[in-house]
Amino acid sequence: MKRLVPALCGLAALLLSSVAAAQPAPAEGHFSVADFVLASGQALPELRMHYRTLGQPRRGADGRVENAVLLLHGTGGTGAQFLSPQFAGELFGPGQPLDIARYYIVMPDNLGHGGSSKPSDGSRARFPEYGYADMVEAQRRLLTEGLGVDRLRLILGTSMGCMHIFVWAETHPDFAQALMPMACQPTAIVGRNRLWRTMLKDAIRSDPVWAGGDYAAQPVEGLRAAVDLLLLAGSAPMAMQQDLATPAAVDEWLAAQQARRIPALDANDLWYQVNASFDYDPSAGLERITAPMTWINSADDFINPPELGLAEQFMPRIAGVRYRLIPNSAGGKGHGTHTWAVFWKDDLVDLLGRSEP
User: Fold this and answer.
1) pLDDT single digits (tens) 320-342
2) Count of alpha carbons within 13 Å of 7, Cβ hemisphere only?
3) Which of 77, 174, 258, 320 is the most buried (most CB within 10 A)?
4) Where are the beta strands (DSSP E) in the chain?
């Protein structure tokens, strides 16, 4: 059983007022499917996927939607991140690379995130543990059963969404005509990357308030440590050296970040979101990727440091890939460079051009 419930929602709560004035409101809706079976064999009695769309689907002579673009957010985010000025303001307007007069933009909140099914809905730590394979399958069900889309002009994904693209490209190699993964590597998460994630999960569940996930109030000390790790993982060293130039500036910035971020978090949701990468390792199947790909990383990314040489190791096995490493700079955004389109929108234009049907 499945259902699709469309709605319309304004941008004012999501964007700065100047951007809200420049961008049309996205359509929002929920897609639901009963008895969603996970790769582990466990099942969700109901999978609910919240999504936003911009533009309208256009059908080709064969009746299939031909202009759909899937945007996939990072760990802890939602589809709303793509409505930020540094992304939407560079890409969605008239004549811009993803002009919504031309493209049908689909921005889901992925399983475990935002308005989609997640532990804080009521199950808490009894929610089944999901992995990236489950998240990609939920995206596919939303597209094919909910929105009537069985092919994509482009998948663009950031961080976790970048990793989802590699899963998509190997599991459904003919679904998308172009792929743009940003800020990830196509291999298992080990080393320092896994270490900080494990530290974050341990901090949450070692808080005395955790209570097996049935906490009466959020385990704030665990969340404080989690936020500290997230801030470090997302940091841009050259920019921080310049912008946080005194001890007082560092202290003030950290206090402000904690005060803003901690109240917005749920400990169960965050633990599951970080844990979901446990099943990720596309390295064995890279030869199955056939669609043109532009893969972007940044040199100031704590999570994906270029000195590991992973891109150079895996690129020769991916047909049709173009790789670019955005250099470090005082204007860099660290891991978050993926959402600042000014750094890579020319690469997107090139990808769309060379993948034109």
Assistant:
1) 999 999 999 999 999 999 999 99
2) 9
3) 77
4) 2-8, 27-37, 43-54, 68-72, 104-108, 154-158, 179-182, 293-298, 321-326
